[in-house]
Each structure stands twice: as C-alpha cells, then as structure tokens.
Amino acid sequence: MGLKIYLAGKIVDEADAKISVFDHGLLYGDGVFEGIRIYGGKVFLHHPHIDRLYESAKAIRLTIPLKPAEMIAAVEATVKANNLTDGYVRLVVTRGAGSLGLDIRKTSNPQVIIIADTISLYPPETYTKGMHLVTASTIRNHSAALSPRIKSLNYLNNIMARIEGTDAGMVEALMLNHKGEVAECTGDNIFIVKHGVVRTPSRDAGILEGITRNAVMDLAREAGYRVEECSLTRHDLYVADEMFLTGTAAEVVAVVSLDGRSIGNGEPGPITRNLLALFQKLTRSGA
Ligand code: PMP
Question: Is the C-beta atom of 211 inside 6 A of ligand 1?
Fold first, then answer.
C-alpha cells in the first residue's frame, strides 16, 4: 500500500496524487518547500518551519492558499494518516498551473502537497567516524540574484555542487559564496570549533538559515559555549579544531576532512559529540 498524500485540501492515495504538467513548480521550479522531521509522533520545530515556508513564499510573491494554522493542521493530519512516529515531512507549495510563459498572472491554484514518509539516514558509522568533504567549484547563488534564504523548488545550484561531491565519492560538498567565503553545504549548514568557540557563517554569507542550525546554536549557548556568526574562509576551516554539519535529515554530523586536510586530529571532536548528544536528547525527549 502506498502513502497517503495531502493534495488540494484532501488526503488521497499516492496513486491519485497528481498535478498538472503545466504547473510552474514543474516548468520553472517556481515554488517553495520545507523538509521537517517527525520524532516520537511529534512534528519537530513545526512553527519555525512553517514560518520559513511563508517567508520563502512571500519573497517570491506566492500566496499560499492556507493560513499558517491550517497548514499546521494539514501537516499533522498527513502524519496521522500515514501512522508515522518517526519520519520526514516534505511540504511543497507550487505556483500552480499556468501558460507556458513566465507570467505568474496566468497561473492559478497554487498547489499544496504534503508527503509524510520514513526517512533514509546516513549510515551509523558516519556519526561515529565523521564524514569527508570537498569544496565544490560551483559557488552558492548570489543573494542579489536569488536569495539562498528562500527555500525554493529550484535546487539546481545545490544539485550542481552535490554532483561534484558525489564525483569525489562524498555525500556532501562545501559551497563558497561569490566573495570566496564559506557559505554552507548543498543541503546542510556548516560549523567549526576553534579554541572552544563555535563558529558558523552568518546569514549575510548567503545561506539557507537552517532550523537545525538555529536550534544547535541555542543548545550550544545553553551548554555554555561561546557561539559566533561570522565570515569564515576555507583557511579557517582547514585549521579548525572541529567541524560539523547541521540539517533536518543529518541532525549533527562531524566532518573529519576537507579537501584532503584532516580537521583537528581527524576524528569527531568533543564539542561536536556533545552537541550531537544534546540534539538527540532534545529530539528524543518529546520536546
Ligand atoms: N542549507 C540548505 C541549502 C538546505 O537545503 C538545508 C536543508 N533544508 C539546510 C541548509 C539545513 O536546513 P534545516 O536545518 O532547516 O534542515
């Protein structure tokens, strides 16, 4: 039996979840989305994800046909319909069907699609041993062209960089911004630890402001670490004591090498391991 999908205000069988080939989400990547975790039957950090969805939509002048409270209820109903205790929600809002041209005035009926499924995770050894990274030559979108803060359906910038990581045998890749500063990875935010200080690129670096990033910064501050959002170069990364990524799917995962340089002693660092433990406590405690 397939999944139950929320589409056009109803929960339908996966086989019946169909949208127009003229939808601008398909034709142009014109739409926005969210990826959200379900832990212990609860939608984790539901409100921040919904807020980011509506902010992304506002930035692209897309009016979502549901109020935020209705969206929250629709996500919860979809999770319930699929009997999920642990899993992943993909929330998609498209511009809707239109003509073959770019004019958004010719589109109508933005589509809200909610998929709630199980999640495929990195193998457990990625968490114990850490991952290896390379820097992609594809730079992150210039924020004056298309702000990386918009979680849009057009992910080609990230996909091009991810291909470079895959070609190098890695599951992620580092992206720099147009100034050559560290931005983020293709689907995760990046942090370093240097002399006990936790550092991550600020929003100005041209990044998606990750919900996990923000949660981990809060956890780190509560645990007494100094946390700084600042401009980082690749050199800062090469000489860091520790490095880790954050993301909805990845949670907190150590990085042990970048471009062939070992980070610290080449093993997941103590602060990284502590933050992963704190994050797991938060997500597994029914918060
Ligand atoms: N950056 C990019 C480009 C992403 O796609 C994601 C995943 N949504 C993240 C960072 C991490 O964000 P979050 O913690 O909200 O999943």
Answer: yes
Distance between CA atoms of residues 34 and 20, nearest Å = 21
- Integer Cα distance of 26 and 95 in angstroms: 9
pLDDT band at 286 (very low <50, low <70, confident <90, very high): low
- Asked whether residue 124 carries a pLDDT value surpassing 70, the answer given is yes
DSSP string, 60-95: TT---SS-HHHHHHHHHHHHHHTT-SSEEEEEEEE-
pLDDT at 102 exceeding the cut of 60: yes
Residues of the chain above pLDDT 90, percent: 97
CB-ligand 1 contact for 184 (6 Å cutoff)? yes
CATH 3.30.470.10 domain extents, the chain: 4-117
Best residue for ligand 1 mutational test, from 138, 248, 279 (most atoms within 8 Å of Cβ): 248
CATH class of 124-284: alpha beta
Q: Residue 215 above 70 pLDDT? A: yes
Task: Give the confidence band of 285 by pLDDT, cuts at 50, 70, 90.
Answer: confident
Q: Look at residue 47 in the predicted model and tell me its pLDDT.
A: 98
* CB 152 less than 6 A from any atom of ligand 1: no
Ligand 1, atom nearest to 35 Cα: 8
Ligand 1, from 208, 211, 219: best to mutate by most atoms within 8 Å of Cβ? 208
How far is the centre of ligand 1, averaged over its atoms, from the C-alpha of 100 (Å)? Answer: 30
Catalytic residue list: 151
CATH topology of domain 4-117: D-amino Acid Aminotransferase; Chain A, domain 1 (3.30.470)
> Could you tell me the two tokens for 264?
């610290």
Whether ligand 1 lies within 6 angstroms of the CB of 247 is answered as: yes
**According to CATH, where is 3.20.10.10 located in the chain?**
124-284
Its pTM stands at 0.97
